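Throughout our pipeline, every protein is held as a single compact record rather than as scattered files. This encoding replaces a full spatial description with a residue-level series of whole-number codes. The remainder of this section carries one protein's record, kept here as part of the documentation.
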Amino acid sequence: MSKVKREDKPKGDQANALRRGWTTGACATAATKSALTALLTGDFIDPVEIELPKGDIPSFALAQEKVGDGFAEAGIVKDAGDDPDVTHGATIISRVTKGPAGSGVRFRAGSGVGTVTKSGLPIAVGEAAINPVPRKLMTSVVEEICMRHKVEPDIEITLSVPEGEKIAERTWNPRLGILGGISILGTTGVVHPFSCSAWIHSIHRGIDVARAEGLTHVLGATGSTSETAANKVYNFEEIAMLDMGDFVGGLLKYLRQNPIDRITLAGGFAKFTKLAQGAMDLHSGRSQVDFEFLSRQAQELGLPSEQTSRILSANTAMEVLELTQAFSINMPKSIAELAQENALAILRGAPVEVEVMIFARDGKMLARTDWRS
């Protein structure tokens, strides 16, 4: 599963100017169409057009082409547009060969394309990590071309991505049990710049794999520091560590319908202050720390009233934390408990126990709640 690095989303005219791109699945489909045409006719299509599920008809230029004994292959460089996708610039290569009579369209993982090794994903264990929609797109292209040339659609498609195994280290694939390279993904074929959907989709697949493996305790962490610190407490299996990032709402809503017995939520003071306020997306561009909220909490915990204005004029949550610590006010504990309450509210009574851990930037635990459901 491709995991994108998220940035603040540009606004106004700048956002409208962002350039969309194309998924690995769309690139693989276009490469397959050109390669199969060359296998049957000797001539590649370049540029090659395909139709995507929502009617888009992009055109792709070939980056490489090759015909050999019984095969043809074409490569297309993925353009993710203005989205910071880790697979941007990767070359998606499709090699097609004729298969045994009656075999239909079959898919193989070449170098740099992963193989599924754990259940819970939409592709069976042992299969190439090529998702259902790209498989459907490529199958349709094969059937259409074979019908036009009056041959049976018994075609084997091997997809490969140079450096794909290295690229996959920056994705969720190792945790999901997809080994050997990247996945060939896409539901619409289009990459929308700065979309959060790919990240949330990866969280969902992580929960699916954890459930299929029978795990009863998982971790949702906002970042690497909190993940590392929480893992020192529990020594989680790798597939139990869900890279939640800012999307606590997306994670908990999916757990509501697909429960796992226990989840530890781990993060920093500022991020979980937002969850304590009721935010479900903790990104700085989509939710803000409410200093009036922090002021009220500090007063309830005994902060001298003359210090309230200092909280209201604070620039960061860390400044508030340091101020309250100077007066022996345990703000992290209060924030952790309120964050836990809001997490349970999102779960709406689903059979999931929740604990919350708050960590400092150096990994020191600042607060930890009891388990609640």
Notes: The chain has two domains: 12-191, 197-368. The chain is about 35% helix and 20% strand. The domain at 12-191 is CATH 3.30.2110.10 (CbiD-like). The chain has a mean pLDDT of 91.
